[in-house]
Amino acid sequence: MKRLDRYLLSQFMVLFGFFALVLVSVYWMNRAVLLFDRLIGDGQTASVVLEFTALTLPNVIKAVLPVAAFAAVLTTINRLNQDSEFVVMKALGVSPWRLAVPAVAMGLIVMVMLSALTHVLVPAAKARLADREAEVARDLSAQLLVEGTFQHPAEGLTVYVRSISDLGVLKDIYISDRRSDRTRTTYTAEKALIVRTETGPKLVMFNGMAQVLRQSDSALSVTRFANFTYDLGTILAGRERSARDVEELSTARLIAPDDAVFAATGATPEALRTLVHERFAEPLLAPAAVLLGFSILMLGSFSRFGLWREIGIAVVALIVLNLIQNAVTGQVNKDAQLWPLYYGVPLLGIAAGVVMLGLAALPRRRRRSAQEVPA
C-alpha cells in the first residue's frame, strides 16, 4: 500500500507541477504585458519592468496553485481510469478512502505552500512593490527625460523636451504651468539641467523666457533670463506614501499589532483580526478543492471514453465553491463579526468530498466496479 501511495502521489505532483508552471506562465505574462506598456510609456527601463513583474509573481502563484492541484487530480484520475488501473484497484478491494490518501496528501502539501505565500511572501512582495511604485512616481528624471514627447508629471503641468544630450543636457525645453487659478505661466529655454540639492531637485534653465498670463484681465508679462531655477519639489508634493496598506504586513505583525501598525495603516483592530482569519482560511481551499474533485470522480464508473461527465460536474462544483467564497468575502467586508464564514467555505467543500467518498465506498458500488473490469 505504501508503494501505491507513493506512486499515486508522484503522479499527482508531476501533473501539479506541470499545470502550475503553465498557469503561472500564462497569468504572469498577461500581467507583465500590462506592466510593460505602462512603465515603458512612463520612461522606465527594462530592469524596472522586470523587477515589477517579478514582485507580482508571488501573488500570481498563490492564485493558481489550488487550480493547478485540482486540475492535476482530475487529469490523473481520468487517465488511470481510462487505463483500467483504478478499476483494477477497486476490484482488488482498495476502497475509495484508501485511494484518497495520496490526493489528500497532495492537498496538504499545496496548503503548506499557500500558507507560506499568504502569510509571508505575498505581503513582503506587495510592500516592496508599493515602495518601488512610490519611488517611480517620484523619479522625475524618468518622467522629464523623454525626448519629443509631451509629459504630464503633475496635474496642470506639461513638460516637453526636444532632445537630450549624452551628458543629460535638456535642449529646447517647454514648461506650461496651469496649476494656479490666478496665473498661467509658460517657460521656454534653449537648454536645462536637473540638479539635485538638499531641498529637492531643481531645474536650471539657460537662455530662456517666462510668460505669465494673468487670468483676471488677460494681461501678459514677458521676462527674459540668462538662467532661471525652477523648483521641481512642488511636483513631488503629495507623492509620498501617506499610509501603508494592511495587505503589505505579514501575518505575524497583524496577530500582535503595535501602535506603529495602527498609525501606519489607519486600520481598526477588527479589520486586522478579520484579515488574519482570511489568511488562515484561504490555504484550506486547496485540500477542499482536491478532495472535492477526487470524490466526484470516484462516483464515476469505468469508461474508455473517460470520466468527462464527472469532470464537468467537478469543475462546476469548484466554480460554485468559489462563488460562495466571493459572496462570503463580500458579507464579511460589510460585517467583520461574520469572520467564521471564512472557514465555513473550505469546510463545506471538505464535508461534501467526505460524503461523496462515503457514497463511492458503498458495497453496491464496489460490486458494480468489479463487474465492469474488462475481460
Automatic annotation (TrEMBL):
Protein keywords: Cell membrane, Membrane, Transmembrane, Transmembrane helix
Gene Ontology CC entries for this record: ATP-binding cassette (ABC) transporter complex
Transmembrane segments: 7-29, 60-78, 99-122, 280-299, 311-329, 341-362
Record membrane topology: Multi-pass membrane protein
Principal location class: membrane
Gene Ontology biological process: lipopolysaccharide transport; transmembrane transport
Coiled-coil annotated residue ranges, if any: none
Keyword Transmembrane: yes
Localisation per UniProt entry: Cell membrane
InterPro entries associated with the record: LptF, LptG/LptF_permease
Name by which UniProt lists this protein: LPS export ABC transporter permease LptF
